Amino acid sequence: MEKRIAVLPGDGIGPEVISSAVKVLEVIARRFHHSFEFVYGSIGGAAVDAYGTPLPDETIALCEKSDAVLLGAVGGPKWDQNPADTRPEKGLLAIRKHFGLFANIRPVKAVPAILHRSPLKEDLVKDVDLVIVRELTGGLYFGEPSRKTHDAAVDTLVYTRVEIERIVRSAFDLARMRRGKVTSVDKANVLQSSRLWREVVEEVRAGYPDIEVEHQLVDSAAMKLITNPAAFDVIVTENMFGDILSDEASVITGSLGLLPSASVRTDGFGLYEPVHGSAPDVAGKGLANPAATMLSAAMMLRQSFGMEEEATAIEQAVQTIYEEGHCTADLAGSGVRPLSTEQWAARVAEEVDIQSVSNSIMCSYV
Ligand SMILES: NC(=O)c1ccc[n+]([C@@H]2O[C@H](COP(=O)([O-])OP(=O)(O)OC[C@H]3O[C@@H](n4cnc5c(N)ncnc54)[C@H](O)[C@@H]3O)[C@@H](O)[C@H]2O)c1
Ligand SMILES: CC(C)[C@H](C(=O)O)[C@@H](O)C(=O)O
Ligand SMILES: [Mg+2]
């Protein structure tokens, strides 16, 4: 299959984790006889520096001509004092909005070989397999913020019935393919937009009698995510709550460097990016964990290209390398010598290749 992938490395550790994921995708292409064309574009702080804007028209055009987008991360101290329009993060919000990527799918799954790296008890963590379905193109992120005076600022939180309904349906559809449970997270005891959210969830659930539904307020949901994370299956929530809960959920697995995400719309086009940011504190030092970006690439193969076997090959290779005891600095406990980003990525790429050899040996015996 021929696929054109827009690659947007961005800032900080973005280029490091992206180059790792691209290496693995190159092995996948070779092994499964696909042709992947990687076309590189600029976003975030790098684009502000080169083009004066965090999302240049050239980047939009390149993504429009591609089958999917793979993104690293944006942002960093260099641009933190920029005005709103030339902040790197603005580029990320703009690309999500431009392509109508309203559903941000953030799976959180315990990795058996590294359960001990979670700060939570292994017993709590071992069965965790949940997905946060985060609304991505509405809410506070896209209100009309304004700095009223020197001493006052305002952000508005708007949600329409249509925006809520489509994300809630995505969550119910996903739950049907999983364990059949949806937890809707809101702040309906305070916010009007949350009361509308809850109303729409109640309407949508009528069409899904097979799905178990619960409502949780975001503050107690944040607590339950840590005290009993295995109780969750699909969590559906608005933009800001989803952002916060997904970073919190990364603690369950042991590192933010493990969580992938897909930002999608209904026609299969998607932007795939790790949940983490540009990690300026570790950038350029070989300390970044590229697993989240590799697993995002796996989501791209499965969700945008329908390449199930190829996606599984990446996921299995990541698991195997952890089982062999190799990890990057974020997951190395005391007494464990971590591999650099590049070394760890090379092990995963090698493993994807080795799988192909063992598979063909298996075939020759069948
Ligand atoms: N999607 C994105 O592009 C995205 C997401 C979050 C934050 N950001 C931006 O990133 C910048 C830094 O934000 P932050 O520090 O709050 O969040 P962050 O996610 O970049 O980092 C938080 C902590 O996790 C660590 N970390 C994150 N990813 C890691 C990885 N792959 N491997 C090893 N360690 C990792 C970092 O070293 C840091 O200690 C800000 O400019 C922020 O706006 C961008
Ligand atoms: C960088 C920022 C705009 C972004 C968000 O809040 O959506 C990030 O935190 C994320 O989780 O993708
Ligand atoms: Mg975030």
In short:
The chain is α/β, with parallel strands linked by helices and 366 residues long. It has helices at residues 14-32, 45-51, 57-64, 88-98, 122-125, 161-176, 192-205, 218-227, 239-253, 291-303, 308-323, 341-365, and strands at residues 2-10, 35-40, 68-73, 103-109, 129-135, 146-149, 152-154, 181-186, 212-217, 234-237, 262-264, 270-272. The structure holds nicotinamide-adenine-dinucleotide, 3-isopropylmalic acid and magnesium ion.
Task: Give a description of the structure.
- With 366 residues, the chain is α/β, with parallel strands linked by helices.
- The chain has twelve helices and twelve strands.
- It has helices at 14-32, 45-51, 57-64, 88-98, 122-125, 161-176, 192-205, 218-227, 239-253, 291-303, 308-323, 341-365; strands spanning 2-10, 35-40, 68-73, 103-109, 129-135, 146-149, 152-154, 181-186, 212-217, 234-237, 262-264, 270-272.
- Strands 2-1-3-12-11-4-5-10-8-9 form a ten-stranded mixed β-sheet, with helices on both faces. A two-stranded antiparallel sheet has the order 6-7.
- The longest helix has 25 residues, at 341-365.
- The two termini are 26 Å apart.
- The chain binds nicotinamide-adenine-dinucleotide (NAD), 3-isopropylmalic acid and magnesium ion (MG).
- Magnesium ion binds next to helix 9.
- GO terms for molecular function: 3-isopropylmalate dehydrogenase activity.
- It catalyses: (2R,3S)-3-isopropylmalate + NAD(+) = 4-methyl-2-oxopentanoate + CO2 + NADH.
